Amino acid sequence: MKFYDFGEVIDSKSKFVLFGVPWDYLTSIKAPNSAIAPQKIREVTKDLALTTEMGIEIPNLEVVDLGDVQIEALEVDKNLKEIKNFIYHIYNQKRDVIPIMIGGDHFCSFPVIQTVGDLFADKDQFGILIFDAHLDLYEEWDKGIYSHATISHRVFDLDYVNNNNILIVGTRDIDIPELKIAKEEKIEHLDAYQLQDYGLNRYIQEIINFFTNSKIKFLYVSIDIDVLEPSIAPGTGFAIPGGLSYRELWTILRQVANELKIVGFDLVEVAPNLDLSNNLTSNLAAKLIIEFISFISNNLYFK
Ligand SMILES: [Mn+2]
Predict the structure, then answer these.
(1) What is the whole-number distance in angstroms between the Cα of residue 170 and the centre of ligand 1?
(2) Where are the domains of the chain?
(3) pLDDT one-digit tens code per residue, 137-165
(4) DSSP string, the chain
């Protein structure tokens, strides 16, 4: 089953190339299963309607679903290489496409961000926006420097990433060592509670201003599903109360896609075995992905 039955061949019209990373070895929960999320999120799309909320016909969006990267759970270095090579393979077929990764745990985002960033010519204009309940800024966690709780730190360690081009949004479960690192390195985060304090419009403006003040024009967006309020996205390993609503995140993505050029995005940490029996979290993930694609298309086509 492909995501919304999209084709699997990149051609001259392709704009978005979606792929799954079925890998959850680097999570720290005891019963991980985000590895099955890529397939589950594809599966639920067969029962979802074929227009976006704003009336775009989904089959008209130029999306290709290349399937999943070959993963051997315990082979960390090999998997990182496989993921990188998968993206090289995409760009070799068409350079100006937008890669979309469905995880897997949050560490799956690291090789994707690294590859998209490494290959991006104008690094001064490249930024990273992460939606997450957590900072994921531990230096090491659980299995070492590679963990879903260290992903933001590993991204921050990339030589073209600094506190002017990475922003973490929706945080509300920050551990003491992470807060210390964020303060020392001046890594900016907009906490979930600030959305209520500021109101949605100012919150969005804070996000956009952060990047435009740094002259960032091109953005990679990483969405950890746990940024959302767990009552609407229960199928995830670390359910932290006080998250964003679906509509708030939808509105933020809509505005961000309008103001900045999105060069890649991912959605991670959906755990289908922890979901409700009506697949609420997988449905929500599929909707968010297709809605975000439609917002980006709108910007590509009409600006
Ligand atoms: Mn995360």
Answers:
(1) 11
(2) 14-302
(3) 999 998 899 999 999 999 999 999 999 99
(4) --GGG-BS---TT--EEEEEE---TT--SSS--GGGHHHHHHHHGGGS-SB-TT--BGGGS-EEEEEE----TT-HHHHHHHHHHHHHHHHHH-TT-EEEEEESSGGGHHHHHHHHHHH-S-GGGEEEEEE-SS----SSBTTBSSSTTTHHHHHHHSTT--TTTEEEEEE----HHHHHHHHHHT-EEEEHHHHHHH-HHHHHHHHHHHHHHTT--EEEEEEEGGGB-TTT---SSS--SS-B-HHHHHHHHHHHHHHSEEEEEEEE---GGGS-TT-HHHHHHHHHHHHHHHHHHHHHHH-
